[in-house]
Amino acid sequence: MKFSLGKYLLPTYVFLTFLFLGIPIAYTFVFSFNDSIKSNIIWRGFTFDNWLNVCNQQDVCDAFANSLIIAVSATLIATVLGTMIAIALVRYKFKFRSATNLLLFLPLATPEVVMGAGLAAQFLDFGWPKGMLTVIIAHTMFTLSFVVVTVKARVATLDPALEEAGRDLYANPAQVFMKITFPLLLPGILAAAMLAFALSFDDFIITQFNSGSIDTFPKFVYTAAARGIPPEANVIGSMVFIVAIAIVVTVQVRSSIKQRKLAKK
Amino acid sequence: MSIDFGAGGKDLELVGLRKEFPGFVAVENLDLKVPAGQFFALLGPSGCGKTTTLRMIAGLENPTSGKILIGGKDVIDLKPHERPVNTVFQNYALFPHMSVIENVAFGLRQRKVDDPMVKAQAALDMVELGHMAERRPAQLSGGQQQRVALARALVNRPALLLLDEPLGALDLKLRRQMQIELKYIQMEVGLTFLHVTHDQEEAMDMADIVAVMNKGQIEQMGAPEKLYDRPKTAFVAKFLGQSNIFVGEVSETNSEAVSINFKGNKITAPVARSEKTTGKIAIGVRPEKTQFHATKPEATSTNNVLGPGEITDIRFTGVSNQYLIDIPEIGEIIVFAQNVGKSPVVELGAQVWVSWQVEHSFGLADLPTGKEDA
């Protein structure tokens, strides 16, 4: 009998890959239940305390709140701006259009260290104190390109005849945007917003350069790692992971139910 | 803002309408009048400027110069949503995120008409899709989508309905069926229809008036029978059906008839059916007006005779046969003969003469360039 490579090797390889990806997450999750005393490295027994009293460790919760405020603000600004830029780039011909296109790709290609340092120098130059505002500006700047690229792909697939049909059916430009363009772009805009949020929420390098004394969650974890991360950080990390997975699963289930409904009719 | 909606259709007048794009002129000084309540077809090959004309009337394209009058009122400064015009788009452009009935009710809701859903349902019933109101456009077939697009435009009772090749994406059988329905609906609602198409059969079948457009200009305009019977230019003669066209210097002319010398043969047309009677002119005849004969027919003052030539191709098309006859020194002539059972039995390679009545000849204003078939 011939030894079948595909039959054993491929599943083993896939299993090991997922194991490799999953171990750190599983570790974080498991140790969020650790009844730790000083450092959260050795397993000392199971407890729900960390989950029930996350904000006992005040600085963890503050850092998490800061990260949320920054991520939400940057996402909102970058999504609104980026959507407008994306529509303009696809639909309108204007001076410096190709230059704008090129400039938008630059932040995607620039190393974060360079961008973070450059922004820090800029803020210093302006005499702006580092803090929440400077981080939000920095995050808006680097997530903007991702939003534009994502939304642009969606705009490109939108048939201009649909907007023309709206104008033909007595909708003024603002109504056409609200009733036709925006609903049809919404999936792309939501995807872009989620991407921007994720990028902003776990950014460390650019934040480190521009945040001054403000602590964000990634910054807190980094600093804490030197002396042992408190289990509350594991709890927050696990929660973020669970929320992200829940969103993905909900979206998938919803769209598959919708598809089945359509197929039935 | 109030839009002036006529109870029935309104007339449309284009005066010196012109559209230039960078590098080319799409529409050249177009003058056109569509009477109220008529089914008007703008017929032409792709790239002739017919869709651009339609888009200018809808307000989706700004003319370089000229006037657009709907019911006598110039609408040139009105935005698309302010014009009493609705369009059935080429690929229907149904809103994919709305149900069928929401699509149809869209225009009514924009104008805050009473009972939009009731009226939309009635419009859907008219196109026999009342039972599909809750579906999404993606769940409908091409023909059904086409009818929804029609209902969505018609429900607004526009003064003028624009149709941009609305049947182009349908297969032949469905297209013929929709042509009949469309014509029926137009007669029922009494609105003015402006239909843009490149399908000459479709235009002749449905329209009260056909305007043949070429290179941004109207070549000829009139009732389909008139256009077919007496095309005035080589383009119309070739684009609207088929024609045999002969070019020669005028050899004889009197008050009744004009004759040309076509490579040694005399071909005559009535003066009343000729655009030009001097110099080098083109005379044409429709293939179904010609006959072929096994023996040479006698040439008289009332007929034209060419031949002998050889039959090089026979095509059976059902109701008629198409014969291609190659006459040495003269070229190829197309003859259509109906399959009525008694037609002369001919075979490929047979030697025949071709004749037709002088009264069926038509004299053109221009000479064929050889590119009309494109």
TrEMBL record, chain A:
Keywords: Cell membrane, Membrane, Transmembrane, Transmembrane helix, Transport. Gene3D superfamilies: MetI-like. SUPFAM superfamilies: MetI-like. GO terms for cellular component: plasma membrane. It is found in: Cell membrane. The chain crosses the membrane at residues 12-33, 68-90, 102-124, 136-155, 176-201, 235-257. The keyword Membrane applies. The keyword Signal does not apply. CDD domains: TM_PBP2 (cd06261). Signal peptide: none annotated. Pfam families: BPD_transp_1 (PF00528). One of its GO terms (biological process) is transmembrane transport. It is a multi-pass membrane protein. InterPro entries: Bact_Polyamine_Transport (IPR051789), MetI-like (IPR000515), MetI-like_sf (IPR035906). Residues 64-253 form the ABC transmembrane type-1 domain. Belongs to the binding-protein-dependent transport system permease family. CysTW subfamily. This is Unannotated protein. The lineage of its organism: unclassified sequences, metagenomes, ecological metagenomes.
From TrEMBL, chain B:
This is Unannotated protein. The lineage of its organism: unclassified sequences, metagenomes, ecological metagenomes. Pfam families: ABC_tran, TOBE_2. Gene3D superfamilies: 2.40.50.100, P-loop containing nucleotide triphosphate hydrolases. PROSITE patterns: ABC_TRANSPORTER_1, ABC_TRANSPORTER_2. NCBIfam families: potA. One of its GO terms (cellular component) is ATP-binding cassette (ABC) transporter complex. InterPro entries: AAA+_ATPase, ABC_SmlMolc_Importer, ABC_transporter-like_ATP-bd, ABC_transporter-like_CS, Mo/tungstate-bd_C_term_dom, P-loop_NTPase, PotA-like, Transp-assoc_OB_typ2. The keyword Cell membrane applies. One of its GO terms (molecular function) is ATP hydrolysis activity. Residues 12-240 form the ABC transporter domain. Keywords: ATP-binding, Cell membrane, Membrane, Nucleotide-binding, Translocase, Transport. The keyword Lipid metabolism does not apply. SUPFAM superfamilies: MOP-like, P-loop containing nucleoside triphosphate hydrolases.
